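Thread: N-acylneuraminate-9-phosphatase, structure

OP (GT): Posting the sequence first so everyone is looking at the same thing. Length is 268 residues per the record. Can we get the structure tokens written out before standup tomorrow? I want them in the notebook alongside the other entries.
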Amino acid sequence: MEADYCMEKLQSIRAILFDLDNTLIETRGADKKAVEKIRQYLYDHGVPEECARELVGEYLKCFRANPQDPIPGRTDLDSWRKLLWAYALGPDWDYLLDKVYPLWKKTRFENLLFSDQVRSMLKSLRKRYKLALITNGPSEAQWEKMQKLNARDYFDIILVSGDYPFEKPDPAIYQVVFETLGVSADECIMVGDTLGTDIQGGVNAGVAANIWVPLQDCEHPKPQPDYKLDNVCNLPKLLAGNLANNFSSSVKKPEYKRRDSVRCIASS
């Protein structure tokens, strides 16, 4: 009975809210491929193997902590990331910087894209639903990805938390979507890979269902999603009732308070 009720809720939705990184694009995978390319390049140019591994590991740690300059307006993305590479390479190997940085950037963006299956899914879903993209992260770094992905071609609204005073799981960022698209929370579903931000945010905002697409599975996820998908491209099957994967969540979704003044960045 509960499974039937959950499916009933899916049939009445009008909007789908997606996370970006590691949900629609393989960000972690692209980062790993890019630094592996650099590790091999360093090794081929005289850097000892273990040292090369440590250097790229140090860069990846720094880059994930601060993908753009934390002080707004001080440096652009390229200058900041070159500084991170110079720091990681150190004085012994920084003469390789002019080759390392463009190779890293090229390799990363070659792998940071919507797959053909994801593009096809988004185009198909947008014929029936309003689509929103909500991503946490610094504004400049995330919008760089949007530009490379031509993301505005696939979504009715794109929100980057760096443009707002709140981020997932704060229900306020979901409220921007609801008001902009003219939908209520119970007419939306949230799709994401991270329990603590995507799924918890959907719970906090009171959406109809939360759909988890985990990078790493776990037996007892908290908060408990309503559904789990091994691949985000199985979402249309779930919405059509052809994929049974219900967690039968008993999580109570709290009410959210409306905010009178919000700033939104909607795609044209």
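GT: Both are above now. Quick notes for whoever picks this up: Residues 27-44 form the longest helix (18 residues). Residues 248-268 have pLDDT under 50 and may be disordered.
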